[in-house]
Amino acid sequence: MKKKSILDLHRVSQEEFKHLEKIPLVVVLDNVRSLNNIGSVFRTADAFKVDCIYLCGITATPPHTDIHKTALGAEDSVDWIYESDTCTVVDKLLAAGYEVYAIEQVEGSISLTDIELDKHKRYAVVLGNEVKGVQQSVVDKCTGSIEIPQFGTKHSLNVSVTAGLVIWDFFKQLGL
Q1: β-pairing, 98-103 with 50-56?
Q2: pTM higher than the cut 0.70
Q3: Maximum C-alpha span of the chain
Q4: Domain locations in the chain as residue ranges
Q5: Which string of DSSP letters, residue by residue, matches 87-155?
Q6: pLDDT 10s digits, 82-92
Q7: Which pLDDT tens digit goes with each residue over 92-114?
Q8: Taken in order 39, 45, 46, 50, is the CA torsion positive or negative?
Q9: Domain 20-174 classified CATH 1.10.760.10?
């Protein structure tokens, strides 16, 4: 096997990406503090054609060197919006017809392995702070909660890893 070169990958330009049809998914970052995690979410959102990212609360915004270090330019291709209050974003998304899911360990959550998505609906997922998770006030507003099953001694994943798993699963079901 020969590794593919950058030319073999046939990547689209940032301008072409802006015009691609996106999957009906919005990612909301609720007080994510690590700039590297934010950049990583941008990069994953670019890879799987996420519609938009909301950066809320203390979540930093581009341009920033440490976001760019992991985003590698995806912060310029993926649309993003800053909003100080995550609850306000959830309210707006619900009013616009989105189903909004907190990615959190809560009573009555749906396992990521069991979620069945409808290609005719629009979705948003809320990912929380590295220590505190998604704020309870935000969880309370969401349509529901999705939990990633885990089987080891730790019961949490890095927020950027969580984003990767969730976005990939949504892309598999909603991909164009």
Answers
A1: unpaired
A2: yes
A3: 51
A4: 20-174
A5: HHHHHHHHHTTEEEEEES--TTPEETTT----TTSEEEEEEEBTTTBS-HHHHHHSSEEEE----SS--
A6: 999 999 999 99
A7: 999 999 999 999 999 999 999 99
A8: negative
A9: no
